[in-house]
């Protein structure tokens, strides 16, 4: 699972990422990316899964799947970053491979916007 030290818990951290950060949407999820004032802190990741996704059991399954996927992608996030992953209703029935692919696309977009030199390829 995602390390406890990397989990977002405070409401103002969620607000900072959602309101002041960038956003990249996919059919199954939307990722919001922001930065904290203290850039030396480890990255934090939070998850939002509303009732529109499904009942409590389904919502918890989606959160667990997203936490598991983020564990392997945590090292891609710069220090001091805040990432909120919001699940859309199609996430409930999506296969893990699709969730992983869409999470990768969203992260790539957000990180490329933050550092445009990463997205350039010559040739």
Automatic annotation (TrEMBL):
Pfam families: Ribonuclease_P. The keyword Ribosomal protein does not apply. Residues 1-25 are annotated as: Disordered. It catalyses: Endonucleolytic cleavage of RNA, removing 5'-extranucleotides from tRNA precursor. Keywords: Endonuclease, Hydrolase, Nuclease, RNA-binding, tRNA processing. GO terms for molecular function: ribonuclease P activity. PROSITE patterns: RIBONUCLEASE_P. Its EC number is 3.1.26.5. The keyword Membrane does not apply. Gene3D superfamilies: 3.30.230.10. HAMAP family: RNase_P. NCBIfam families: rnpA. Belongs to the RnpA family. RNaseP catalyzes the removal of the 5'-leader sequence from pre-tRNA to produce the mature 5'-terminus. It can also cleave other RNA substrates such as 4.5S RNA. The protein component plays an auxiliary but essential role in vivo by binding to the 5'-leader sequence and broadening the substrate specificity of the ribozyme. Consists of a catalytic RNA component (M1 or rnpB) and a protein subunit. This is Ribonuclease P protein component. It comes from Planomonospora corallina.
